[in-house]
Amino acid sequence: MTMLCWMCGTIRRDMIRNANIRVGVALILELENMLENRLRWFGHVEKKTYRLCSNESRSYKG
Fold it and tell me: For each of the chain's 62 residues, which pLDDT tens digit applies?
């Protein structure tokens, strides 16, 4: 529980129930997972647009 309290930024003196701390940690982990997936998707899109731009510049005849 000490590590979970540390992750939530609370101390034992706050007298927060263990169940509430576990819910808070689950929420933190879920948000981190969502952020990681969003960043992974953005990197994919960023690479894709770079490839498209380079392909268009190679095929441009002018």
Answer: 677 776 777 878 888 888 887 887 787 788 888 878 777 767 666 666 666 665 555 565 65
Per residue, what are the HEC states of the chain?
Answer: CHHHHHHHCCCHHHCCCHHHHHHHHHHHHHHHHHHHHHHHHHHHHHHHHHHHHHHHHHHCCC
Give yes or no for a contact between 5 and 21, defined as CB atoms under 8 angstroms apart: yes
- CA-to-CA distance for 33 and 29, rounded, in angstroms? 6
The set of residues, in sequence order, having a beta carbon less than 8 Å from that of 8 and lying 6+ positions away, is 21, 24, 25, 28
The tokens describing 31, both together, are 């948000």
